[in-house]
Structures
1.
Amino acid sequence: EVQLVESGGGLVQPGGSLRLSCAASGFTFSSYWMSWVRQAPGKGLEWVANIKQDGSEKYYVDSVKGRFTISRDNAKNSLYLQMNSLRAEDTAVYYCASSHGGAFDIWGQGTMVTVSS
Amino acid sequence: AIQLTQSPSSLSASVGDRVTITCRASQGISSALAWYQQKPGKAPKLLIYDASSLESGVPSRFSGSGSGTDFTLTISSLQPEDFATYYCQQFNSYPHAITFGQGTRLEIK
């Protein structure tokens, strides 16, 4: 079964850090661009970051540049998002997704990140 | 960044109705557009990619059309399981500068 499973979400204070993980199974993880997409409570979808198959290219939405870092470990079939200097506006459900030609064809169930004091 | 504007923002319809949702891009994006369905508490599901290609396993009552700046998602005959929120997404500058529309909530009349 094709599956993405996120973990690592939780409650963190403003200015704090959190590392999200996404475990892939059922497909050739190393063959796909991978992404993080987030959704604030009651709001729409926002693309956060992309990483190339071999990790050599990474792209971010402007609002997280310099604070978030996307990475991957193809040997472990895993995707990561290191989030530093967290702000209240980063509060959201974070989804990992595989990207096929620009569209997101496989999604995880999401992990909730809450930034609050 | 390219902005996507969906219309309407919400829509009430009945089972069996034909429904059309529109997505307009702030500049031309060729056919670099996808459509997703999202139900409450669930992850989005890809329906259409490259503006008009139906994702494997998606019912044929869903169809997409358009190119350039104007796109439509059509559901030919609404089924009870189709009541959800729909999002368009552009990837003209992929792999960066990806944006989504604000969503269209489809409700039961």
2.
Amino acid sequence: AQSVTQLDSHVSVSEGTPVLLRCNYSSSYSPSLFWYVQHPNKGLQLLLKYTSAATLVKGINGFEAEFKKSETSFHLTKPSAHMSDAAEYFCVVSKAAGNKLTFGGGTRVLVKP
Amino acid sequence: EPEVTQTPSHQVTQMGQEVILRCVPISNHLYFYWYRQILGQKVEFLVSFYNNEISEKSEIFDDQFSVERPDGSNFTLKIRSTKLEDSAMYFCASSELASGGTDTQYFGPGTRLTVL
């Protein structure tokens, strides 16, 4: 079985300040981990993925995430928030190719000018 | 850049009616999926489809649901007799069969289903 917990349902940051979105996972095997973003009235867009290569993963739009097996965490960060980063972010786990994705509850990010 | 498309963007139906949600996956992809997101809840897996058959389904995917790939491009989700609780955003996704055991699922923009 697999599960994902996003520790914050809402995060508010000021433009230009760092963003940290926290995610913990539970899995009985070596998982693939993803972060997806959903802008208002849009579909889910892949930000980045971890697939057992480098533990620090770089994604689009300046986001990166670090896989820490000992902490079962996959936190998402960005050094400097932009207004366009306002969206909902989902941490997701998968067992392997062709397998279902299990989503966290999502973190809604608000960026203040 | 190739993308997954879904039609319609919004569907309103009466309880008990049948609905068909349509998806066009990315053309060289081999795995297809349906997920749904009830308002205020998590995105939930419904079903995965590979090689013209269901490869995995969740407990949500009961006899009221069916999937089909009627031709070489479309992938459909049918709900035979809709209930109020079927109201949700339905997302289609597709992925390539990648070697090494990893895949990326690409999502469509979703169909918002409202059952009255």
